[in-house]
Amino acid sequence: MKVSDFDYDLPEELIAQQPVEPRDSSRLLVLDRRSGRTEHRIFRDLPEYLDPGDLLVANRTRVIPARLFGRKRPTGGRVEVLLLRRLDGGGDREGTAGGESGGGDRWEALVRPGRRLRPGHTIAFDGTLLAATVREQGAEGTRVLEFAGTPAQVDRAIREAGRVPLPPYIHREVADPERYQTVYGDREGSAAAPTAGLHFTPALLDTVKQAGVGLGYLTLHVGIGTFRPVSVENVEDHVIHHEWYSVPPDLVKKVEGVRTAGRRVVAVGTTSVRTLETVASGDGHGWIKAGSGESGLFIYPGFRFQVVDAMVTNFHLPRSSLLMLVSAFAGREMIFEAYREAIGLGYRFFSFGDAMLIL
Known about the structure:
The protein is of the alpha/beta class. It has two domains: 3-63 and 173-358, QueA-like, CATH 3.40.1780; 67-161, Thrombin, subunit H. Helices cover 18% and strands 26% of the residues. The protein has helices at 151-161, 202-210, 249-261, 270-278, 321-330, 332-344, and strands spanning 27-31, 38-42, 55-59, 61-63, 67-73, 78-86, 105-112, 122-125, 131-137, 142-147, 187-190, 214-220, 243-247, 265-268, 291-295, 310-314, 355-358. Helix 5 (321-330) crosses helix 6 (332-344). The relative contact order is 0.21.
């Protein structure tokens, strides 16, 4: 299977640069993967496609202001850092501030200009008293940075001096940084938003609950995979970046209840899909297991889904692992036909764009 099989042409004007207001006024393309039939609705119409007893599962991660600027010591050269994830136990992975004790705080990061930052080099960050030393040069151009402070000190510095990172195809800052957060996100740790969840409002979530649909939450902190295209020629050779997840016991019980009642698990976003399928018990009944860990699950056509029955998702970049995931769920040809239809009708694409519901 070739990565080029997942390429398509998108007019640049369809790359959404700003979110719509209100959140649930974005367009919704509904795709029935059994018949291939599509409908064109507004996102607030989503509850019409959910049945009492279904379970909507969303990712409660929250984006940290992970974009930092500083200078290389002692030359003073400008440096930009994008923090991807905290390593080896530095602080609470669920998003609260880290402890006050302990030594340096290590993070995996992207740095620019990368060629000038090698192990042993030090960065002093603007607007903070903290500095970090490059300890390792990792795979895919990443660096391991060790901050000279406790996790709690680093968390405070990030909140004070950091900026919320936006994808490189968005060329303007967002007036309200909260528009790049979901309304339910409360577990800090992501370098990018789980964008399918950006369409929900508190009122829409209330409507979902009033319709008898259950709500469940998990956490997957989004990392480098969002920023990096698939660079190999053969799909099967791609190795996806690992991301930390947590699945609570109450979600396991809710999924068990849905399965017992013969209802559907509807995942909000590809991050929820990957997490649910990562913790699938493998017994053929669609059960999942509670716990936390690192997921490197790469879903592409041929994958057998065990848990997810339907998904809410955005429109994804060409040649991306996310496009391969939705192609695995609905079939490549059906997805590409839906994308052609969406382009023809002027749908808005990518992080701040419109949504799909795949049934």
